[in-house]
Structures are given as structure tokens and as C-alpha cells.
Amino acid sequence: MVAPGFIAIGSGPAGLTAAETFGRKHPKIPVHILSSDPALPYAKPHLSKAYLRGRYPKLDLHSPGWFVQNGIRLHSGITVDHIDVVNREVVTAAGRRYRYWHLVLACGATPVPLAVPGGETAQPLRSFSDAVVLRMAAKNAESAIVIGGGLIGCEAASSLASCGIATSLVAPEPVPLHRRFGLEVGERVAKMLSDNGVRFIGSTGVAAVEDRCVTLNSGEAVEAELVVSAVGVRPDGRLAAAAGIDTECGRVVVDEHMHTSAVNVYAAGDVALAYNVTAGRRVPAEHWRDAARQGRIAGLVAAGYQAVWDAVPEFSFAIGDQMLKYRGWGTEFEHSRVVDHRDGFTAWYEIEGETVGVLSSNA
Ligand SMILES: Cc1cc2nc3c(=O)[nH]c(=O)nc-3n(C[C@H](O)[C@H](O)[C@H](O)COP(=O)(O)OP(=O)(O)OC[C@H]3O[C@@H](n4cnc5c(N)ncnc54)[C@H](O)[C@@H]3O)c2cc1C
Predict the structure, then answer these.
(1) C-alpha 201: how far from its chain's center?
(2) Mutate to test the pocket of ligand 1, among 288, 317, 325 (most ligand atoms within 8 A of CB)
(3) Could you say which of 97, 135, 178, 353 has the lowest number of CB atoms within 10 Å?
(4) pTM for this structure?
């Protein structure tokens, strides 16, 4: 049995930042990060952008020496099987027990399986090991199809196309990013994708994946050496739910301080459904910076400091060399208004005349 201390489950931005923040405030208390990911913590946003294009940016967030110097024990490749909130311990799949004083659940999200015959053969893109598999396959592929017209699907398709691979992107919506940004912006994104060499096939789903061939619901069969599944992610609140901690639609319910319903247990990042004091309600956020911010709040509050989540969620994404930035409260809006600029545009999203989100491209 290891001496009790602070434990973060997950080595993404939420778990890492929580551990870093707590460790800085209490250098003498043991700090552990338990993560099923075998890699050193890395920058996920690069995976679908520069990394997939073969540009190999620096992915590691810290060196192994940094963890030693900062007294954070990183246990990589360790899966937590369950949490005992009564005895305050975390039990790994191998049966090892870690007692905690403070525990942060930062388990993130997992890819939604592509639920069609042969769907399991499509390659997801969530982790570094997924990206390595994709990058290796892309080196020898001449054609690819990406299934799913969300952020990861659009980024992956434009990155593959920029490697000279004949790439199609298929989605049930009429335009990419339709649900998130609406028709007008989706049409502009479709144009950016097409300018990057991506063929967008909208308004049709996938019926089956078989032998390098994807059959669409429209009846069209698309031959592709590389099949990528990007049909969304699902927050992974299973550990919390099994421990009797409050969850909603797979997310762990937390207040503005990242407290869960269990004593000294916090949640942050993609897995959390946190209360945002500026919005006056719980806001789901599945973005890098928000995960890091929430992790920092969890680390501070666990360390005995005051902190609340009040920032407006934000993220950026890239289609080819075009960077787009969004700031706002999510996918719900009644009206959108797009203003063109010389090299880009700004889209304003409104509910009852109030701005609830802004997307800008080169603006
Ligand atoms: C390819 C890609 C590109 C992206 N690009 C952008 C972008 O441009 N901008 C942006 O804002 N966001 C982007 N995102 C989203 C962003 O990366 C996530 O919102 C962020 O990583 C969430 O952080 P997290 O710490 O909550 O979870 P994650 O980063 O998902 O980390 C979860 C961690 O929990 C571990 N874990 C899960 N279950 C267990 C268990 N039972 N036991 C032990 N460990 C466990 C996992 O191994 C992992 O280490 C991208 C995501 C991907 C995959």
C-alpha cells in the first residue's frame, strides 16, 4: 500500500494540471497520476494537425525528468478498475491499491464505436498510439476516407489530403460541422476542405466497411486504403457511476469548484459536467484549454484554495493552414450571422438577441 496523498486518474490536460497545481502548493504530500495511456503526457491537438501531416511537432508536455524534479509520480499504462469512496482508495486492474486524501477524476472521453458491419476495422484518432498507427498507414496509402464531419474528422481529412492522399470525408449532415456551427459556416468549411483537396460527401451515412471499401447509405461504394472513424466521443464517467458518484449522460456532475457528490473527490475535463458561474448553469466542454482550466481549479481547491470555473469555453481548430477560433457556450443557438472579411469571416451566434458564441477565421 502506497502512502495516501493526492491522486489524479488520467494524464490528459485535466489530470496533469490538477496534479501540477496541487503539487506546487503542497510539495511534501505525495502526488500520483494513474493513467491507462502508456505515453508521456502529450499535446493531443497536434495529433490531427501537424503530426498527421508528418511534421512531427514536439508532443511531450514534460520530460520524464520534470516529473521526478517536481515530485509527481506518473504511473503510465495503469488502468484504474474501481474507486472505493468509503475507504478512500483507488484499485487498479492489477489489484494494486492507492489510498487518497484527494482524488481527481480526469478520465476524459472515449471514441464512439462506428456501429456498422466492419466498423471496428476503421482506425479511431484519440490517443498518441492511434496517431502513430494512422501516420504509419498514411505513409503508404494513396486513398483515404474519414467517417464523421465533426472537428476531428475535418482536421484529419484535411491533414491526410495535404499529404497527397486522395481523401473523402463522409457525414450524414449536409455540410461539415453543421450541428456545431450551422449551414452557412458549414458551407465555408466545405469550401476550405475542397480547397485542401478533400471530397466532402454529405447527407449520407455509412452502411458497412469491408475490404478497403466503404459502402454508403446512398448506395455509393468508396474504395479507400485507409478508413478513419471520427464519429464522436463519449465522456467516460463509468468509474464514477460505479462508485455511486452522481453522473448525468456519462459525465460526472460537479459544482463550480469541481467537487463531485463524494467527499474529497473532484472531476475535471471532458468527463466533467461542471457548473460555470458566468453562464449560471452546468456547461459541457470538450476542449483542451477548458480541461486544463478545470484541472487547475480542482488542484487548487483540493489544496485548500478558493477557485471557481467562470471562463467562457474556447477552442481553436485548423483546416489545412486556416485556423478557426471559437469562444462561446456550446452548440445551441437560434440565429447565426456571418460577416465576411477580406481573408476570412466572423460568425455570431445568438439566442433571443444575445450573443452566445463567436467563431472567427482569420479575424
Ligand atoms: C486528435 C485530437 C485533436 C484535438 N484537437 C483539439 C483542438 O485543436 N483544440 C481543443 O481545444 N481540443 C482538441 N481536442 C480535444 C482535447 O484534446 C480534449 O478536450 C482534452 O484532451 C480533454 O482532456 P482530459 O484531460 O479531460 O481528457 P483526456 O485528454 O482524454 O485524458 C484522459 C486520460 O484518462 C486516462 N484514463 C481513462 N480511463 C482511465 C482509467 N480507468 N484508468 C486510468 N486512466 C484512465 C486516459 O488514458 C487519458 O490519459 C482534440 C482531441 C483529439 C483526440
Answers:
(1) 24
(2) 288
(3) 353
(4) 0.97
